[in-house]
Amino acid sequence: MENPYEKCPIYENETYLLRLVEASDAPDLLRVYSDEKAVPFFNGDNCHGDDFHYTTLERMQSAIGFWLWAYRDKGFVRWAVVDKTAGQAVGTIELFNRRSSDYFDQCGLLRLDLHSGHERTDAIREILSLIVPPAFELFDCRMIAAKIPPAAVQRKAAAEQLGFTLSKEKLVGGDDGKEYTDYYVLHQSL
């Protein structure tokens, strides 16, 4: 499988397209990141206090610029989630292989940010079904983990339908040692 940092793979089905985020996605993604119903489901763990609630086009453009810099620096891949029917980006997915000294070592850490209109079990399952199966090999990881807060019942149902289970383990922040909870994991099947 190709290195995702050399050539970012594209995944799609009839409804959704996942491709590397682009600067031109800023107006669409501003709708997502300014959506106050969606913000509580975004994962800001270990992100230096960023809550991902962006209310100006300039702030959204700055975030996309950082995501593209991190991609070039091989920090993480951030895909735009494009609703093919609407012809617009309705969210993003971030993935990287987390190296750490805690339980979540060699873990594909997945962050899914969606507009509240797509925070539905069927949509989430469809989106995750595109990215999760190839992620193990793509990021050379033994498990995939995604934070799912208790209030995200649709997200939890979708993840559980795909085989994710709530981990009792805590993710330990690399910078400050802070412990984070509510991670659902899917182990690679051998």
Note the topology:
Layout: E1 11-12, E2 16-20, H1 26-33, H2 57-72, E3 77-83, E4 88-98, E5 107-114, H3 121-138, E6 143-147, H4 153-161, E7 165-166, E8 171-172, E9 179-180, E10 183-187
Parallel strand pairs: 5-6
Antiparallel strand pairs: 1-2, 2-3, 3-4, 4-5, 6-10, 7-10, 8-9
Helix residue percentage: 25-40%
SSE pattern, N- to C-terminal = EEHHEEEHEHEEEE
Per the principal axes of the C-alpha atoms, what is the gross shape?
A: globular
Beta-strand residue percentage = 25-35%
Mean pLDDT equals: 94
- Rounded Rg: 15 Å
Q: How many β strands by DSSP?
A: 10
Tell me the strand order in the biggest sheet: 1-2-3-4-5-6-10-7
Low-confidence stretches: none
Helices, by number, come to 4
Structural class: alpha+beta
How would you characterize the overall build of this protein?
The protein is an alpha+beta fold. The chain is 27% helix and 26% strand. The protein contains four helices and ten strands; from the N terminus they run ββααβββαβαββββ. Strand 8 and strand 9 (179-180) form a beta hairpin. Helix 1 packs across helix 2 and helix 3 crosses helix 4. The longest helix is centred in the last third of the chain and has 18 residues, at 121-138. The two termini are 18 Å apart. The model has no long low-confidence stretch (mean pLDDT 94).
